[in-house]
Amino acid sequence: MQSLEAELDDARQLSVADLADAIESIGFECTRCGACCKADDADDHTATVFPDEVRNLEESDEYDGDYDWRDIARPMPYGLSETDDGGLEGETFEWALQTDGCGDCTFYEEDDAGTGACTAHDDRPLICRTYPFSVALAGTSQPMGEAVDEAGMVRAHECEGLGRDISRDDAEELARALKERAVRELEEAIAVRDEYAPVDPDPGEVVVHDSEGAKRADGTPLE
Questions:
Q1: Domain presence at residue 69
Q2: Fewer CB near the terminus (10 Å): N or C of the chain?
Q3: pTM
Q4: Which of 50, 42, 145 is nearest to 97 (CA)?
């Protein structure tokens, strides 16, 4: 298995044209069904968000400072333990977009006809910009669901919009975002590894390790 640094070199050398060719060959058009923004039968919606993406949403003109860190992001639940009162505790890595009471992404809404929309569309994280695609590099995240199609380095995950015509311009825009995401994910993984120092959280406390070090659940640094 290659090191994360070697995978990062490969990500930086990805050809946008080749990625766009692959996306075109698979085909995609968003149908606004909302499946990628909603909880499934077993789990809440989980989409990775980088620390700087959380801050971008905090500072977005769209929300005029109405959202703080915990409105936007929650500790990635994997590896955490449930407390007696239904809370979580322990150490985890990275952040997930916050969810509402139904387990859907907090930024997802539907109109009266059931058509989905993202209220943070212009500032949405890279994993949302690139769904339902991923690249076949170790150290990068895969969207929910197994890959159902692939072409070259591009994997396509379950989505009713797959197989539809996509313009070259849209394929290239998606390809650029997909390459950026692969690079960012590997940079983040390397930084998390290098910054990690184990801690012993207090009972009922969650500590999140990201590329900037250890943080509390509200995004503030752990002293």
A1: yes
A2: C
A3: 0.91
A4: 50
**Number of domains the chain is built from:** 1
**Residue 223 covered by a domain:** no
Q: Is residue 27 part of a domain?
A: yes
Please calculate the CA angle 115-120-123 and round it to the nearest 5 degrees.
135
Any domain includes 169: yes
* pLDDT digit string, tens, across residues 18-56: 999 999 999 999 999 988 999 887 788 999 999 999 999
| Assigned token pair, 214 | 């250890």
Cα 133 to Cα 201: distance, rounded to the nearest angstrom: 36
Q: Of 128, 127, 73, which Cα lies nearest the Cα of 96?
A: 73
Q: Note the helical H segments in 96-203.
A: 126-130, 168-195
Q: Token digits for 91?
A: 């150490």
Sign of the CA dihedral 174, 40, 31, 50?
negative
Contact call for residues 131 and 65 (beta carbons, < 8 A): no
The pLDDT tens digits of the residues spanning 99-126 come to 998 999 999 998 877 788 899 989 999 9
